[in-house]
Amino acid sequence: MSTTGKKRDTYHHGALRTELVDASVRLIESEGIGSVSLRRVAREAGVSPGAPYHHFPNRAALLSAIAAQGFRELAADIDAVGRTTRAAAAPALVRCYLDFARRRPGHFQVMWRHELSEPEKHPDVQSAMEEAFGALARLLHDVDAEDQAGLGTMLWALGHGLASLTLDHQLDHTALKWDTTADDLVERCLTLVSGLAGRS
Length: 200
Fold this sequence. Notes:
Layout: H1 13-31, H2 38-45, H3 59-84, H4 89-103, H5 105-111, H6 114-117, H7 123-141, H8 148-167, H9 170-177, H10 182-198
Helix pairs in contact: 1-2, 1-3, 1-5, 3-4, 3-5, 3-7, 4-5, 4-8, 4-10, 8-10
DNA-binding region: 37-56
Protein name: TetR-like C-terminal domain-containing protein
Organism: Myceligenerans crystallogenes
């Protein structure tokens, strides 16, 4: 929802940056990535059109901040899984990835669009991506698998695929054809993953 009324230029320096990122995420979730511009985000945050430039020189810098924030939160989620569910790490990782996408759909849409966030120009994105990969590697370290790299890639691909299908509502459409629900299909996938990981 857009902010109306008098412009706010009285945010604390750090609070304005946070609000600009939050406003961008709200726009992405409601209208898509194409709706994000520094001018539009300024209007959503209730500040003057020039205010965002104190923090973000361009749109890519703003999107990179969203991507970095998302990767760091995903890394924290994966680490939390590792502390609580090592015995069932494989299906738990897929569920963690899917839960993150459902909870942070705006972030998820930006994180893997490198042409938008430009990680090669924004080191924070690259370091946050490495944090997430490190969390994945730590989680799989204790998994009894002959090919941890292959297993990790498979789990990432499954989690990403389920997340994308869920956010695009394609899983709901597929579930109708199978006379079931999207959640049931997810649980079936996780059961299969658990069995495959157990035989690794």
